[in-house]
Amino acid sequence: MDELTAGLFNPFASEEVAPPNSSHWEAKRRLAEAVRQLNDLLVSTVASDAELAQASAQVEALNRTLADTPRLHGTLAYLKSGEHGHYGEINHELNAVGGQSNPLAPGLNMWLDGNRAYGTVRCGLAYEGPPGFVHGGFVAAIFDQFLGMAQVAGGQPGMTGTLTVRYLRPTPLNTELKLSAQLSRAEDRKTLVSGELRAGGEITATAEGLFVRPSRGMAAMAEMAVGNSGQ
Ligand SMILES: CCCCCCCC(=O)SCCNC(=O)CCNC(=O)[C@H](O)C(C)(C)COP(=O)(O)OP(=O)(O)OC[C@H]1O[C@@H](n2cnc3c(N)ncnc32)[C@H](O)[C@@H]1OP(=O)(O)O
After folding, report:
1. Any idea where the Thioesterase domain is (predicted)?
2. Which end of the chain is more exposed for a tag (fewer CB within 10 A), N or C?
3. How many A from CA of 196 to the centre of ligand 1?
């Protein structure tokens, strides 16, 4: 393992969501949950125009306050600060799909048990695609992240090369969804993982992911990323 992937998988050692490793992440998880609720409320409220304008002004004021605080742009900046844990912990907080402190992430919980991986997730109204059901792009994103975690059992974690999702039936919103995956093959730099997503015991989608460990190593991806974080 290199610098980027070292320690990445500790948060997935058990079914319990790994607790925040500092008061900073604890506070940020609380804020992230509030923003998730805000997102849910935003898409569902039919408040008056005046109420919406007032809410906008309040959120805009909060944005100005946070914009004036010290900021770190991207996971690598957090890593370099040396104050926010190792990469695995930072990724566990900020990842776009699995991050506990990222309100974009739907609250995906994942854990490994030998060669098998398990997970749960619940997608609220903000994830609606077809009426009452989860947007297919988010189903794919959940699989990408989940299979990406499951591949570590192969010992050569890499980037998603190919992800194939088969949508068998619509995946319901506001329902506990269960994920499971297993390693199909791990050879050289390539790891093949397959998984399924269930709602109420029924499989709604299956997926297969081929992960490729970059020839230049995962740390080289970090070098390529310099300048991408919008500073
Ligand atoms: C531990 C971290 C967890 C990460 C979870 C990941 C979640 C993500 O969303 S990752 C983001 C999405 N993915 C990406 O952005 C990846 C972008 N692509 C790349 O960076 C590169 O193309 C990468 C790393 C996939 C392969 O590059 P490189 O190492 O140069 O591959 P290369 O040496 O040419 O090929 C190695 C082998 O893999 C195969 N391969 C390469 N790319 C792919 C691909 N996209 N699909 C299938 N097979 C591929 C090649 O055919 C070759 O096979 P063989 O050895 O049998 O000839």
Report:
1. 132-202
2. C
3. 22
Position in ligand 1 atom list of the atom nearest CA 211: 25
Instruction: Domain of residue 28: give its range.
Output: 10-225
63 pLDDT above the threshold of 60: yes
CATH number for the domain including 207?
A: 3.10.129.10
- Helix (H) or strand (E) segment spanning residue 61: helix 49-67
ipTM of the assembly?
Answer: 0.95
- Cα 148 from Cα 208, distance rounded (Å): 11
For the chain, how long is the longest CA-to-CA vector? Answer: 60
Q: How close is the Cα of 219 to the center of ligand 1, in Å?
A: 14
How far apart are the C-alpha atoms of 221 and 105, rounded to whole Å? 22
**pLDDT one-digit tens code per residue, 132-156:** 999 999 999 999 999 999 999 888 8
The atom of ligand 1 lying closest to the CA of 159 is 10
Confirm or reject: Cβ of 74 under 6 Å from ligand 1: no
CA distance 121 to 162: 23
Q: How many separate domains does the chain show?
A: 1
Kindly state if the Cβ of 193 falls inside 6 Å of ligand 1: no
pTM of the full structure: 0.93
In a domain, 4, yes or no: no
- Sheet with 177-187: strands ordered across: 109-113, 116-121, 177-187, 190-199, 202-212, 159-167
Asked if the structure places residue 43 within a domain, the reply is yes
How much of the chain, in percent, has pLDDT values that exceed 70?
A: 91
Q: Is 157 in the pocket of ligand 1 (CB under 6 A)?
A: yes
Ligand 1 contacts CB of residue 182 (under 6 A):
no
Span 207-229, pLDDT tens digits? 999 999 999 877 777 666 766 77
Q: Take atom 45 of ligand 1 and give the residue whose Cα is closest.
A: 161
